[in-house]
Amino acid sequence: MPGPGASVGKPVQGQPVAKAGQPAPAAQPQGATLATVRERGYVQCGVSTGLPGFSNPDDKGVWTGIDVDFCKAVAAAVFGDETKVKYRPLNAKDRFTALQSGEVDVLSRNTTWTMSRDTSLGFNFAGVIYYDGQGFMVKKASGITSAAQLNGATICTQTGTTTELNLADYFRGQNMTYKVLPFEKNEEALSAYDSGRCDAYTTDASGLHAQKLILKNPVEHMVLPEVISKEPLGPLVRQGDPQWEDIVRWTLFALIDAEELGVTSTNVNQMKASPSPEVRRMLGTEGDFGQALGLSKNWAVDAIGAVGNYGEMFERNVGVKTPLGIPRGLNALWRNGGLMYAPPIR
């Protein structure tokens, strides 16, 4: 359920609505989304209905997670105030319709970047905020220690995601059989697995670590080592408004660049005096790159000051010191052996 501060969004006035699975309606003029957001006074951000570490409300309705932090960063870049954002909880089935219809300005909801979503649905992904891959969770008592032992198994999963096609591809490639037990809501799929209706539960590996925490007895379950797909998760916007797309994309890039350049939430203002041309350009001391986005010179300062750099976001929400305990892995900076890399601000 939406907590305090969450609102049920409405389509942007005058914008045609697309049906689910069909291309988005004709684009708004460049700058229309930013103008609408400013007139409204906040960013409407689509998030999950509850996934620990990514977008999850507590019992007081306060949202946290790496996807939530990104929503705050966009609000800070636009308004200079990370609180000017409201969250629209969306399940896997409804998330794309909500973005197409204008109910949300940006979808920051553990969503995999695929060709069909980037083309036929009328969306553009702003980048990758988390490199993931689909995996499996099983009960330790089953004796299963590898996905190769799942021949003939019943697998619980959620519909409206990439997982069902990934399952078919994996089992076909391994010449194994399986039965899928699909559910519209993730909570239903997880409950069915926990009650023993299926042998394994599958989703993105990050989601497995998160969902394991809410099972009746988490220690009785284990995530198998195999990763069967590429799942680059990232925020996305409607096609047709390049300025808004640039704002969302470069906010993400600024958070990644900030980690590489040593700019943090605590030193961002002091770093404005840095002799580094890269740092000075990013923080608005040199040049005016915010102008090209329709934002202030301090857009990146405000975003980084609100949520920290990418590394701070990762460690605070899903890192090894959190209940999820996920190491950086592929999500480390490129110079540290990971895939996180952002174009320079220049």
Automatic annotation (TrEMBL):
SUPFAM superfamilies: Periplasmic binding protein-like II (SSF53850). SMART domains: PBPb. It comes from the Bacteria. Residues 13-32 have a biased composition (Low complexity). Pfam families: SBP_bac_3 (PF00497). Belongs to the bacterial solute-binding protein 3 family. This is Transporter substrate-binding domain-containing protein. The lineage of its organism: Bacteria, Pseudomonadati, Pseudomonadota, Alphaproteobacteria, Hyphomicrobiales.
